[in-house]
Amino acid sequence: MTTTEHPARAAGLASQAAVRARDKQAWVALFAEDGIVEDPVGPSGFDPEGKGHRGKEAIAAFWDMAIAKTDSIEFLFGDSFACGNEIAFTGTIRSTLGGHHIDAEGVFTYKVDEKGKIAALRAFWEVDRAMATAKPVG
What we know:
By secondary structure, the protein is of the alpha+beta class. Helices cover about 25% and strands about 40% of the residues. The longest helix is centred in the first third of the chain and has 14 residues, at about 5-20.
């Protein structure tokens, strides 16, 4: 198996492509029925209890709360590491919102089930650190 054929890498890249294309339906369809999104991992403004967004309805609601409010999202990943049924991408996610770029540097993992559906998307990044990067577009 080559690295490009790894099922978790394929799912992660498909997830990123759906976000870039602003295609909520395609993005949600990538997840297993009981999949979970933790972005970021732990309590945050997106998830005050830090339990994640489990199931397609909750994942769709996360899209509306976090992704749909941005103007664009870029995945500036330098590397990825596939092991077992998971992959970790390292680098930066740049969100453009209200005329500003915000860079969330971190580690972003995708775990797939036996069907290649995303069972877990976990994003390890620090909210305060990302907000400190806010700068006007241009």
